[in-house]
Amino acid sequence: MEDKPGNSVLIVGCGYIGRRVAALLTAQQCAVTGMVRSPESVAALKATGIDGLCADLDAGLPDISADEIYYFAPPPRDGDRDTRMSHFLAAITTAPRRIVYISTSAVYGDCSGAWITEQQPVSPTTGRGRRRLDAERQLIAWSEANDAQWLILRVPGIYGPGKLPLARLRKGLPVLREADAPWTNRIHGDDLAAICVAAMQSAHANTVYNVSDGHPSNMTDYFFRVADAAGLPHPPQVSPAEAETALSAGMLSFLNDSRRMNNDKLLRELDISLQYPELAAGLKSCFTD
Ligand SMILES: NC(=O)c1ccc[n+]([C@@H]2O[C@H](COP(=O)([O-])OP(=O)(O)OC[C@H]3O[C@@H](n4cnc5c(N)ncnc54)[C@H](OP(=O)(O)O)[C@@H]3O)[C@@H](O)[C@H]2O)c1
Rounded to 5 degrees, what angle do the CA atoms 81, 202, 3 make? Predict the structure, then answer.
């Protein structure tokens, strides 16, 4: 099922990934509108040739209507519900053909380092994961009630040019010592953008995909490799007990979950050929051009 030029496309939360998706769609002659929260972000979109819609998912929204919707906005910071998703779905006046949603792998919770497929039961251990699961469930229920297709991408850590923990490394902030560090998964931003477009245009619908480059490593190894690529010193390592006081609550919330994401279904059904299946090549892309 191919997109026809002329379809109206709305990207809700048109930031780092949204701008990349918009660039791919513009090259396919699609008319793209990006929804963002601030006038500054509308101006930034306009500077790259993308029509911007300034709207706040936490406040009153205009009527929403588009043939295809990419929903990339994060949930609110607190609570167990994604009220932004609720507001958004309630504002849709004509059901789109399909909504592609970027969720997170946090919905799986801790899997003790096991390899997991999409069959893994969801069991979020953090508020972040619970809000994402709530968003997924709202999206599925709304789509089924309104005869729209849905597709959910469970995404792990996104990295790419301008999206590396360089400020943290420059400050010399500590990391958990490697022997205790959990398994983490990653995807390069350019690959994720191509996956989002493939997800919208695929014959497969109403399903969930694990998104990953297929090469998980422990989180400390990731920081070391980013530091090496940037020519920065390795951060100091701390024990789990020291981490409780030395690391921020946000960082600690990433250390409790350990899992390795199997991406077979993604590669097979969406016919994806990743540009950056290995971190080495992906990091190189962050320091060239
Ligand atoms: N970073 C990761 O490693 C990671 C991992 C898994 C999933 N994700 C998720 O993947 C998605 C895409 O990531 P990204 O890097 O492209 O995010 P991003 O660059 O932070 O972009 C998010 C966009 O959402 C908009 N937005 C936020 N709150 C809004 C609100 N209340 N009303 C309207 N718009 C709002 C922002 O608008 P303004 O620019 O005007 O603020 C921004 O354009 C996000 O949901 C992110 O949480 C990220």
Answer: 105
